[in-house]
Amino acid sequence: MCTNWNDLLSTGLLATLRALDGSTADELALLSEHYPFRGELAEACRSLAVRAYGNSERSALEELHAALALVYERDFSGTRVTDVDHERQPILRDVAALLERAVLDRELSRISEASVTGHPTSGTEYVHWLKKMVGEHPAGWHPFYHQHLTERGTREDLRLLLAQETNLDPRFDDILALMQVGRHGGEKLEIAANYWDEMGNGDPMQVHTKLFGEALASIGADPGYVRDTFLLEAGVSGNISACLALSRRHYFKAVGYFGVTEYLAPRRFRCVVDAWRRHGLDEVGIVYHDLHIGVDAGHAAGWFKNVVGPLVNSDPRIGREIALGAMIRLNTSQDYLDALLERCSAPAMSTTTPGTA
Questions:
Q1: Least crowded by CB within 10 Å, which of 52, 61, 287, 355?
Q2: CATH code, 120-350
Q3: What is this structure's pTM?
């Protein structure tokens, strides 16, 4: 092998993962079979996780989530013909599995067992119980949306918010596509209907990722701005979204996680639309959020009725998994919105000159 991978690994996990893109197909094949190196790579991941979560080193937490984000970027990217013989998955899956375990262990440790057990075993009653859980959590009516944005949010605050929302919105259609794998009947049809809405119901001009891109462009949140303002907490939320969607074993948690996402979207997006119009911004930029106020209300109702309820009816043990996913979403959403509110409330934000839309 031309690259000294152990020397490269000593410079950091991120540098090692980035180097995979410049490797030849033969070098990648040899690297996958180089088990001593893969052992060193695993140890580097464990060490990084200890620094990030055991020692509370923010720089380590940033590197850990940057590494996961790089892996997920590959997972959600289209294939190039020049890459058909380049097998990176053994290495990337090694890294993802170890870092994901550390991330989820931390998130699960924040959830009390009492909050996710003792739930109703009837699907209908369980849905009421789950909605009550969401309503009582601080993220259910977070002050960023329901006080700051609606009462005093600036144009720059809106731009900053949309930059953070790139952690999920641009790939939500693909997440729904992934969640359909292996499901059947009304459950699969409900997720498929949600997916078809994301696809603009067949109209290319109404595909939701396109509409979200127009929102970013209209407010001046170009890729450079997103990169420079992206919050770690937003990255954590986005990585967990990808983790739960990509792994089949996390499906039930994903049902709870994205069910909460759909349930909270209409009330949050109403705040965005109101703030947008208060500033007299171009209506083309608010089509995405305005549309989701009604669409996501329907999606949430269908998700609870046709996915959550039937799953709990089929096996009450699934209720705990759904609740865990819901709590992970609520807790990480609160973290992200707390950080966003702090950023928007800082003196520097009030004097920032908005970019040109």
A1: 355
A2: 1.20.910.10
A3: 0.94
